Amino acid sequence: MNEEEITEMIIKCPVCFAEGVAKSIMKEIEIPHFGKVLETTIQCPKCGFRHSDVISLEQNDPAKYTIEINKNNLSVRVVRSQSATITIPELGVKVEPGPKSEGYVTNVEGVLVRFEDAVKKALNLFDDEESQKNAENTLKNILELKKGNGTATLIMHDPFGQSNIISENVKIEEIPEEELRELKTGFAHIEDN
Predict the structure, then answer these.
(1) Which of 28, 34, 169, 27 is nearest to 103 (CA)?
(2) CA gyration radius for the chain?
(3) φ and ψ at 153, to 5 degrees?
(4) Which helix (H) or strand (E) holds 110?
(5) What CA–CA distance (Å, rounded) separates 186 from 128?
(6) CA-to-CA distance for 137 and 158, rounded, in angstroms?
(7) Other beta carbons within 10 Å of 17
(8) Residue 145 to residue 71: CA distance in whole angstroms
(9) Straight-line distance from the first to the last Cα atom of the chain, in angstroms, rounded to the nearest whole number
(10) Could you report the per-residue pLDDT of 125-167, keeping only the tens digit for each?
(11) Confidence band (pLDDT; 50, 70, 90) for 189?
């Protein structure tokens, strides 16, 4: 990574509202396979609040990335921008970007861990029998994939083309216009009437 510019400020904490104690750090850096990004961190020593994010400063053509999840590629690098949607259709799981969506760099197994954590939260949120049964089944399938048992398809749609799956086995395609219109970006849109 090539560090280009660091900006530090002392700000009001967005959680406890303490004046002049939270530190905000912004760095513009170049990340291989990702391009120029703005890395931001806000940290409050008073209440312990911490938030980090990586915001891409470049826009590319929309792209759909597809790779088979199997025991041989759990370590394949996955770069997800804050605007990307990740789906594993065989498991019925999907994460779409929202206003607080964050970009991250992980691997295929790390994506599975993120879905595993989300399903575990769902198990605690929903107590009806059908939801519990579905969540437990999904969790079992995720754990089997993490062990290298079975296969599934990881699909990542990025309307701004800022994501990537770094592998010879990844299939990269254009996103058709009608499909692109349906994708969430995580950004609010204001329309004129």
Answers:
(1) 34
(2) 19
(3) -115, 125
(4) helix 108-125
(5) 30
(6) 28
(7) 11
(8) 8
(9) 45
(10) 888 899 899 999 999 999 999 999 999 999 999 998 888 999 9
(11) very low
Number of C-beta neighbours around residue 127 at 10 A: 8
Structure tokens at 86: 């990740």
The answer, yes or no, to whether residue 2 has pLDDT greater than 50, is no
Give me the residue label for tokens 């995580």. Answer: 186
Determine how β-strand 50-56 pairs with β-strand 104-107.
Answer: unpaired
Q: Return the axis-axis angle of helices 108-125 and 129-146, rounded to nearest 10°.
A: 160
Q: How far apart are CA 183 and CA 84, in angstroms?
A: 9
Sign of CA dihedral 151, 111, 86, 56: negative
How many angstroms separate the CA atoms of 4 and 29, rounded? 6
DSSP 135-157: HHHHHHHHHHHHTT-S-EEEEEE
CA distance 56 to 34: 8
Model confidence at 5, pLDDT cuts 50, 70, 90, reads low
Asked if 104 and 80 count as a contact pair (C-beta separation under 8 A), the reply is: yes
Q: What is the CB neighbour count within 10 angstroms for residue 45? A: 12
172 phi, psi to nearest 5 deg = -115, 125
